[in-house]
Amino acid sequence: MFGGALAVLVLLWWRTGVSRVALFWAAFILTRPLGATVGDFLDKPLAQGGLNLGRDMATLVLLAAIALALWLVPQRAGISALHAQNGPSGDRN
């Protein structure tokens, strides 16, 4: 449910002019229950619908998922307002 709500926010970001600040805060708020749900799923016993990995193994799985996401999603350097206004050298022409 929380992952689906985050997917809706991504679609809004791509397809609409909804405030980026509002979308950021909505996504920020949704990540907390999503993380709790995923953590519970990894740690719960099999009889209760979880994977029964235990706390240590669940932590390692989450760290590996984060590392994989950082590796797969290209990172770009931001452009400062001064750089955008004055050009690459920062000097006014």
Task: Give an account of the 3D structure.
It is a single chain. This protein is mostly helical and 93 residues long. It has one domain. The protein is 68% helix and 0% strand. The chain is built from four helices and no strands. The protein has helices at residues 2-15, 20-43, 54-72, 81-86. Helix 1 packs antiparallel against helix 2 (20-43). The longest helix has 24 residues, at 20-43. It is elongated, with a radius of gyration of 19 Å. The protein starts with a helix and ends in a 7-residue tail after the last helix. The relative contact order is 0.07. The model has no long low-confidence stretch (mean pLDDT 87).
What's the story with the biggest beta sheet?
A: none
**Which consecutive residue ranges, at least 5 long each, have pLDDT under 50?**
none
Instruction: Please give the oligomerization state of what you see.
Output: single chain
Distance between the termini: 52 Å
List the secondary-structure elements in sequence, H or E.
Answer: HHHH
Tell me the β content: under 5%
Give the structural class.
mainly alpha
- Would you count the extended β strands for me? 0
Helical segment count: 4
Overall pLDDT confidence: 87
Query: What is the 3D shape?
Result: elongated
State the share of residues found in helices, binned by percent. 55-70%
Please give the domain count. 1
**Rg, nearest Å:** 19 Å
